[in-house]
Amino acid sequence: MTPTPSTAPGDPPRLWGVGTGRTLRPIWLLHELDVAFELRPILTRTASMQTPEFQALSGRGKIPLLEDGDVMIGESAAIVLYLADRFRDRGVFAPEPGTPERAQHDELCWFAMTEMDAILYTIRRHEGLPEIYGASRVAVEAAREYFLRSAAEMERRLSDGRSYLQGDEFSVADLLLKTCLDWAVMVCKIELPAALGGYFGLVSARPAYTLAMKTNFPPEALAALGVGGPS
Ligand SMILES: N[C@@H](CCC(=O)N[C@@H](CS)C(=O)NCC(=O)O)C(=O)O
Known about the structure:
The chain is of the alpha+beta class.
């Protein structure tokens, strides 16, 4: 059973969660869209996740979580795709649903999530959180190699000199890819292929990204990570 969201139609969207690469995604897109939102800055694996209010909404106990009118969804990629479609009048960050461009766009999103994010989470679990998930050097090494193979595929997609994954326009697919690259570099200490450097710098220079990084990584979140960037 899915609990009912507590926002009413017309309220600004309410977003739960800060402090990780996953929570950065909706915060970043909301800044790109310049949409006002209410942020509940709860941090993973802290008492702030245990409040009755959050637990009533999220049986799963995971951030990010978005409430928007009748909609309540988790899964960071689903949230950003929903926001891109919902606030299309504020800026276009995904091609029109049902078009070949959108199909290609969504392929890139799924790739980022299943071939990059999920692989990084293997490293995070078995290297960064051994007290919960157990340490496994073999799993971590294999995941690092696999991640590099995925990064090489993204490099290949960008190798014709295009600025962004789908050409001249920054999209949700770029936002998902960049959050994975950040996580790889800052937390997993993976050295990215040099050819991705230009793309990395271009996306990092977006004002909404800078703003979102500040919103998403308060000092206590960085301290919890023990790093200068996302997890
Ligand atoms: N696939 C989900 C992953 C969500 C997720 O694992 N969130 C972490 C923070 S990055 C969390 O809430 N962890 C709490 C826990 O596992 O107890 C997404 O992309 O939103």
